[in-house]
Specification:
six-stranded mixed β-sheet, five-stranded parallel β-sheet, 24 helices
Length: about 550
Amino acid sequence: MKKTVVFGFLGVKLDAMGGFNLQKRMGRWRPTVGLCSQPDFPVHRLELLHNPRDKALAGRIVDDIGAISPATGVRPFELALTNPWDFEEVYTKLRDFSLGYEFDIDREDYFVHITTGTHVVQICCFLLTEAHHFPGRLIQTMPRRNREEEEEAGGRPAGFVDVIDLDLSRYDQIAQRFRREQADAISHLKSGITTKNAAFNVMIEQIERVAGRSRAPMLLTGPTGAGKSFLARRVFELKQARQKLKGRFVEVNCATLRGDSAMSALFGHVKGAFTGALSERAGLLRQADGGVLFLDEIGELGMDEQAMLLKAIEDKRFPPFGSDSETESDFQLIAGTNRDLRERIREGRFRADLYARINLWTFRLPALAERPEDIEPNLDYELARYARDCGVQARFNVEARRRYLAFACAPETRWPGNFRELTASVTRLATLATNGRITEADVAEEIGRLRAAWNDTWQSPDSVESALGKEAAAELDLFERGQLEVVLQTCQRSRSLSEAGRLLFAHSRQQKKQANDADRLRKYLLRFGLDWETAREMEKSLPDAVG
């Protein structure tokens, strides 16, 4: 059985009741002595903290506890406080004491006595226990309400004790409220959409916990259109509602930043920093001070900007472009990417130290095709959003809804633009609906529109011409051209060179002792003067999948 160890401050008023007269002392309620007089709460060891000037009083308390509870060992600790009402001093010295104490949680249960000491001491004890610097629970001592209660309890004024467990999940009403608040927060992150995808729900629950407890960078990965920007804003709104932030939500697509303009946009510049810099510019990092900076497509940042960003994240300080002095900005970073950053590190296009810094909380948002069970609730959400934004209600008739969902949820429907494409599709249907009714004819026309767009954009042989040029493509045999077309389509669908290689060589790789899919694919592309980036970039160079 574990031993019970209590940390307590000496109370210079309450513990001094009765003075030097033993009989008077024993007839008065004193919290530290009363703590060690509980038949149902035996204290094996009391760590008694006191100011050096109260050493004599501490000695009397040790003697009195020895008389009424011989099994309790008392160890006085001198803790010199210049001003016991100075919060900074009290907190710092109590924390230093906890850091130097050798806790043995396997053999001992710890409690922190909060009845004695100044109010500042009690507050600091509470905070340090809540933060687990003292790995235990709080205990409070109180006198009985009257003499009769004391006599019923044994006659001696021992009072009684109450253990306060800071694990709030143990308290039913508080736990219920926490569960409701957490459910509301998760619903907010999902925009009120009741999703059925188990993995996505687990991810959102984790994001909710991280948003409430951490200000460390967060990395959202996943294909274009999966909702990274939308989720980042929702995280900001959640933290703002919980009063974790005071600043703004600042968003920038790093793919649009190039050269000096990238440095200037992110970090600001001083007047005259470059040609055309006619006035000072604050920059996005300073605008995000106290708030959230969302850097979408962070993998597109240049190496110089990456180095500056790393310094800004770690030091909260950075020099504006063209300045010798630094400025400050304390922001939380949320980064988004559809790239495999580890692959870009191997290619020398992304800093490993920056990736290590932003990779603490990484969440991959699944593509729409990976969440077919969530298409229907998202369909209803988009219709409701259209009605709210446009002031016009549009509804499917029964057969039209059935046909659209059958197409949307079919395994062969890939939704290359993901949720962004679904939003566009529903917006078109609602806009073209006659008298607010979406009919089978409307759905048939929209399905045809989507298929045509996908064939043109994602499956056309012209993608070979886009990669090689018209003349070079014309010199290929039909067999070679068809093979290259499949390879390019696979690269466009894949998140990394390795993933594309695994898909293309799924059978032959099993016959090899060492899987070298990425190297095989790299050499194949090189035959045509292509590399992974060129093949992957074709997805960006093509027009949007829909509208």
